[in-house]
Design goal:
two-stranded antiparallel ribbon; 53 residues; three-stranded antiparallel beta sheet; single chain; 55% strand; globular
């Protein structure tokens, strides 16, 4: 679940809450965000790009 949008100098970041893990900061860049589905309100994130498994 996206908790908030953070404005940083290089790009905006999504702060994402995760169950059983620390929050994840996801940069709003094409390499990190695979797709956004506004109808289903989902964001597909490339966790490998972020160094997550």
């Amino acid at each position: 679940m996206v908790k908030r949008l953070l404005a940083y100098p290089s790009c905006e970041l999504l702060e994402v809450a995760r169950e059983g893990a620390p929050d994840l900061l996801v940069p709003l860049v094409r390499d990190a965000i695979r797709s956004v589905d506004r109808t289903s309100r989902t964001i597909d994130v490339d966790l490998a790009f972020l160094g997550e498994s």
